[in-house]
Amino acid sequence: MASSKDPAALEHPADSIERLLAIMARLRDPQGGCPWDLEQDFDSILAYTIEEAYEVADAIDRKDYSDLRGELGDLLLQVVFHARMAEEAGHFDFRQVAQSISDKMVRRHPHVFGDEHHADADAQTVAWEQIKQAERAERDSGAAPDDSALAGIARGLPEWQRAAKLLGRAARTGFDWPDAEPVLAKLAEELDEVRAVLADDGDPERLTDEVGDVLFVAINLARRTGVDPSRALRQANAKFERRFRAMERLADAAGSAFDELDLAAQEALWQQVKAAAQ
Questions:
Q1: What does the alpha-carbon distance between residue 235 and residue 116 come to, in Å, rounded to a whole number?
Q2: Are 12 and 104 found together in one domain?
């Protein structure tokens, strides 16, 4: 491949992935690279990586496929960035990343790339989990075995996502309610416990514990009803933002600053906006 300093390597590539890798190598080149890119490490760009994943989710929610193309590119850049830093440190390179995920997909789909057969998607999901367990056992050989059904759930996940995975794994063992009604009852029970703490001493640690229980049960309710909690919360955020901005516009049109209105007047605007949205 041409040198990363060769303009031809950046402008007229034979392969778009090779071009992207050459661009990242150029950005990280100590001789003439980008000062900002050179200052970065795994920790400093981690937040950007997570943010780009959420930007992808937002584009999908909006059904904006032109924007999705760009956001997927931004996310791919994060992968290339991490891989470049790993290559510089002698850990691995981008091609090894691609090889690793390719090998994993072939290994986890023996019904596609091999001779196994599954009756349906549910049977395939069970087989997928069995393969993952075998992979974890091989990876952790020599360490104390973790035979829990909850083994291997990453601690770096957003906590709502980790809660959903914990609950889903537990459900596969039969530890689950038969339908949503008991979950609703449990949610009401947890809310009562929050009220009890507030009526008692409002201790911050007790409140953290009880509110955490409320959130955990709410995630379980989403799981049990087949609702994606991330999508549900994104929609709730978008709805609140849309309605709040509409209240601000109404107040401004009436010659008032929204933050100078009393709570009753703000609530009246909220109800007006809510009714208009219906």
A1: 40
A2: yes
Q: How far is CA 105 from CA 99, 195, 273, in A?
A: 10, 48, 49
Average model confidence (pLDDT) across the chain = 89
258-269: b (≥16 Cβ within 10 Å) or e: beebeeeebeeb
Question: Could you tell me the residue range of the domain that residue 93 belongs to?
Answer: 7-108
Which distant-in-sequence residues (6+ apart) come within 8 Å of 214 by Cβ?
Answer: 187, 190, 191, 194
In total, the chain counts a number of residues equal to: 278
Per-position pLDDT tens, the chain of length 278:
444 555 455 555 558 999 999 999 999 999 999 999 999 999 999 989 989 998 998 899 889 999 999 999 999 999 999 999 999 999 999 999 999 999 999 988 888 888 888 778 777 877 777 777 777 677 766 667 777 888 888 887 888 889 999 999 999 899 999 999 999 999 999 999 999 999 998 899 999 999 999 999 999 999 999 999 988 998 999 999 999 999 999 999 999 999 999 999 999 999 999 999 75
In the block, tokens 């069970």 appear at 126
CB 43 within 8 A of CB 55: no
Q: Which amino acid is at 27?
A: L
Residue 270 corresponds to which tokens in the numbers above? 């909220």
Q: And the tokens for 187?
A: 């949610």
d(CA 273, CA 79): 42
Let me know: does 233 contact 221? Beta carbons within 8 Å.
Answer: no
The domain tally of the chain equals: 3
**Shared-domain flag, residues 163 and 210:** yes
d(Cα 57, Cα 230) in Å, to the nearest integer? 9
Here the CATH number for the domain that contains residue 207 is 1.10.287.1080
Q: 94-100, long-range: CB within 8 Å, 24+ apart, which pairs?
A: 94/21
Q: What is the pTM of this model?
A: 0.62
